Amino acid sequence: MPYTALLRRVSALAILIALPGVALAQAPQKAPAPASTPAANTTATPAGPDSVVASVNGKPITQGDLAIAADDPALSLPGVDEAQKKNLLIDYMVDLRVGAQAAETAKIGDTPEFKRKLAYFRDKLLLDDYLEQEAKRAVTPEAEHAIYDQTVKLMKPEEEVHARHILVDNEAEAKKIAARIKGGEDFAKVAAETSKDPGSKAEGGDLGWFTKERMVPDFANAAFAMKPGQVSDPVKTQFGWHVIKVEEMRTKPQPTFDELKEQIDQHLIRKAQQDLILKLRAEAKIVRPDAPAEAAQPAPETKKP
């Protein structure tokens, strides 16, 4: 079992033992510092990457080593506070160094298989860091706004409706409800009493804003043919019978830059990294003796003699 998998199985118990109220026979805790003692932690300068947090057989473990371990997805510790996380990472690094030193003594690193693995992971780390640098270069305010402007320019204006509805099982019931509302009863109050739609009933039948394609055709056609304030006659869909009230209509506003920023950044990163790999491939001399043959192309027609 890889060590990281072992750590995941052990860390849950370690965290449980460390939690207040669950600890078993722990060593006595130091008394809290007197109130007059300055709170050094609030003004302490953050430790640099070369700060030593532990050592194993004379070889230091630094804050920078902990930072690298903390970035390992296999060592994710959600819900653990920073002090506990640091302690668990130090324990992990101690075990890692102890095991690595023992493996060195056992000449594990001298085997051809290990050397191949080491070369593979070195290449992978180099590529990952190279692509990360390319991503940072690609995401600039100028590039972000250029993509945003291009995106919103291509967006066609769409009409939106803000509507409420009441859903019931049969036409007769829908007619009675429509009559009540057209007679002056409050739509939201009647919806809360009678609607079968659990998603909107508690909100007085409110469906919010929607474009035409978001609703089933029969419902959408009825809603978009109405005017604000109008209440429909019963409308049948595959879900049942609806009574619809249109509250407002508008042209759908374009998304703001902040709303699209995350998607824009992901697009810029993916494109920059893909372009980089394609460029490197094009510039490299790649030989693949065992490459799969390309799909057979039909031979050109030739005239028979």
Estimate the helix proportion, in percent: 40-55%
Termini Cα gap:
70 Å
Q: What is the string of SSEs from the N terminus onward?
A: HEEHHHHEHHEHEEH
Class of the domain at 159-251, according to the CATH hierarchy? Alpha Beta
Signal peptide: 1-25
Domain PpiC: 158-248
InterPro entries: PPIase_dom_sf, PPIase_PpiC, PPIase_PpiC_CS, PrsA_foldase, Trigger_fact/SurA_dom_sf
GO molecular function, one term: peptidyl-prolyl cis-trans isomerase activity
How would you describe this protein?
The protein is α+β, with helices and mostly antiparallel strands and 305 residues long. Among the domains are: 1-19 and 50-106, no CATH class; 159-251, Roll (Chitinase A, domain 3). The chain has helices spanning 3-18, 63-70, 82-105, 112-138, 141-154, 171-182, 187-194, 217-224, 257-283; strands spanning 52-56, 59-62, 159-168, 206-211, 235-237, 240-251. Strands 4-3-6-5 form a four-stranded antiparallel sheet, with helices on both faces. Strands 1-2 form a two-stranded antiparallel sheet. Strand 1 and strand 2 (59-62) form a beta hairpin. It is elongated, with a radius of gyration of 33 Å. The chain starts with a helix and ends in a 22-residue tail after the last helix.
Keywords, separated by commas or semicolons:
single chain; 305 residues; alpha+beta; Chitinase A, domain 3; 4-stranded antiparallel sheet; two-stranded antiparallel ribbon; 9 helices; 6 strands; disordered N terminus; PrsA_foldase; peptidyl-prolyl cis-trans isomerase activity; isomerase; signal
